[in-house]
Specification:
The protein has 441 residues and is mainly β. It is built from one helix and 32 strands. Strands 5, 6, 7, 8 and 9 form a five-stranded antiparallel β-sheet that branches. A five-stranded antiparallel β-sheet has the order 19-22-23-24-25, with no helix packed on it.
């Protein structure tokens, strides 16, 4: 499939599509002075000119092989898993897009709603599905052609589905056309941008985190899953504009108590029903180092602070919102780790050691969202990684287990299930953190 001719064909096809439709991405490189946002909101219903931000692009130093592609697939796609255990059905050109999984042994059928957006093409060859070698995780990229008007920022989406559990692991939207290349020895899927050989992103099968680069945080689209809302940064001041497809806008402005007049924000999570959006003013690149967490009700524009009663510390902290947006975890700069359940408004607090040369990042949730893997990174004066500790947190009990200490290199969570996690070259139990020895041949 990766012949020289196929690669050349994909290069010219993707280059032709991209040359007329894509615009260069921009990346905020702003490190504002620490701010104190409050929950004072200004709400309006004006109809501004639509502004669509694009995703950040990181340029790595290695170059994998570009995958080949085929002519557009038909609107209905049906295919068996490589082991013939499951039959997959995908119907395009409808909203919402749904995936059907049929167990070929029991004939049980499960339907998964993927997205409320419309897609009519799939990248790749016969039929464009990429499977992990254990045949448990299905990956593919959908896109729209012709490119949509109104909200053209995200016209493609990378999807990863745990077929055994019939659960979506990640949905990553993009304004770039991408192919999926997977090789078992690499332990990851590579999302390649056709015609742009120096730009590609990564996904570690089994995780719910898509990454632009190995150490980056999870990527969340600025456009809601149903395509109805878009987050736009305010050009001046500190706050966000949530712009609806109808042109209506909800505005939220932070109150800043120092000399800074700008605080960039980003989406932490959209709820699947499209009713709420979680967003944070952030300190620097990456989504975990933030000054607060706010939730906006998109039906009326009302905003509440989810950490404190409208008061946020002068100091930033490290935060992650669960994929189902029902729980959050955050770590303060003085080492208080807090687990908060947003459904019943309860929380647990654990004290951990954390000094000024350390930060916390890379929160990865298990598929059932009961466990979290995260890293505590020690850096030198030039912000280079000196060593990294890795932890397992039980979200239900608050129990914290150290998996690895003083690792000299940054490690990635390559895969995670409800029972174990693959971290670097080792696997650990999510019950007690013990190393799982590989099965003997």
């Amino acid at each position: 499939m990766k012949t020289f001719i196929a690669r050349i064909f994909f290069f010219f096809l993707a280059a032709f599509l991209l040359s007329g439709c894509l615009t260069p991405d921009r990346q905020l490189d702003i490190k504002p002075t620490p701010v104190i946002p409050t929950t004072t909101a200004v709400i309006s219903t004006i109809k501004p000119t639509l502004v669509i931000p694009t995703a950040t692009v990181v340029i790595p130093t290695i170059k994998p092989t570009i995958p080949s592609t085929s002519t557009p697939n038909p609107n209905f796609i049906s295919a068996n898993s490589p082991d013939n255990k499951y039959t997959i059905g995908l119907k395009l050109s409808e909203s919402p897009v749904k995936l059907t999984i049929t167990d070929n042994t029991s004939s049980d059928e499960t339907e998964i709603l993927l997205t409320y957006r419309s897609y009519n093409k799939i990248m790749g060859v016969d039929p464009g599905f990429t499977w992990t070698t254990d045949n448990k995780i299905l990956m593919f990229v959908l896109y729209q052609e012709p490119f949509p008007k109104g909200m053209p920022g995200d016209f493609s989406v990378f999807v990863a589905v745990d077929v055994e559990q019939a659960k979506i692991l990640t949905m990553n939207y993009s304004s770039m056309l991408r192919g999926v290349w997977y090789e078992d020895k690499s332990g990851m899927a590579t999302l390649e941008h056709g015609g742009l050989n120096d730009i590609y992103d990564f996904y570690f099968p089994g995780t719910n985190c898509y990454k632009e680069w190995f150490e980056s945080e999870c990527e969340i689209s600025d456009i809601s899953p149903n395509g109805s809302w878009n987050l736009s940064e305010q050009d001046y001041g500190a706050g966000v504009d949530l712009i609806g497809s109808s042109g209506d806008t909800w505005k939220f402005t932070y109150s800043i108590n120092n000399n800074s007049d700008y605080s960039p924000s980003h989406i932490q999570r959209w709820t699947s029903d499209g009713k709420y959006v979680f967003f944070s003013p952030f300190y620097a690149d990456g989504s975990s180092k933030v000054y607060g967490l706010f939730r906006m009700d998109l039906t009326n524009g009302n905003v509440v602070s989810l950490i404190g009663n409208g008061y946020i510390s002068n100091y930033y902290f490290y935060l992650s919102v669960s994929p189902d947006a029902q729980k959050i975890i955050y770590v303060t700069t003085d080492g208080r780790l807090v687990i908060k359940d947003l459904q019943d408004d309860t929380k647990k607090t654990i004290q951990i050691s954390l000094n000024t040369s350390q930060d916390v990042s890379s929160f990865i949730w298990s598929p059932d969202e009961t466990k979290v893997i995260f890293a505590k990174v020690k850096r030198d004066a030039e912000y280079n990684v000196v060593s990294t500790d890795y932890f397992l947190l039980d979200m239900e009990t608050g129990k914290l287990v150290t998996l690895l200490k003083n690792e000299p290199d940054y490690l990635n969570v390559k895969a995670i299930t409800n029972s174990e996690v693959s971290l670097g070259e080792k696997s650990f139990s999510l019950v007690d953190g013990a190393i799982i020895e590989p099965a003997k041949p």
